[in-house]
Amino acid sequence: MSRYSRGFTLVELILVLLLVSALAVLGIGLFSNTSSYASLALYDQIISQSRLAQQVALGRHASTTTRLSISSVDDKYILAVSNGVNPGVYQTVRELPREGVQITWKDSGTTGCGGGSGADFAVHFDPSGDLISPNGLRRPTLICLSGEPQRSVCLSTLGFAHEGPCDQ
Fold first, then answer.
1. Label partner for 50 (CA 20 to 30 A): which of 11, 65, 130, 149?
2. Do the beta carbons of residue 134 and residue 107 sit within 8 Å?
3. Angle formed at CA 54 by CA 121 and CA 117, multiple of 5 degrees
4. Which CATH code for domain 35-163?
């Protein structure tokens, strides 16, 4: 029998177990806070649906506007894009969990999120893809998500959706 046997020593196995358990304890904190994930998912969907609504408005050259509505029902947010007088002409709906995230909006004259309305709202895109705010004005609309971390989406007057505040 040789002097050196193959395999791991008990000390090596214990060190590996300690290292794996330490990584597991540190990693579990990344997945325990779902509100940050919900905030990010909602944020991404607002930008995505806004861009979709503008593309539908540009692509259909309809005489009517394309509508992006954001509403809160029970424990979820509903983001809907529709085109035409009859919503059945073109419609797509996304449902996302609220999980502690609040959405506010305002016609943007400032870059801050304070003082916005928490009510359900809809923005419209005219056939040239330009934005019409929830108040019927041709001004940028700032959409704020209060969660961890707080995020904001700006819908510019040209209809482009981008992250961050609306710069005037």
1. 149
2. yes
3. 20
4. 3.55.40
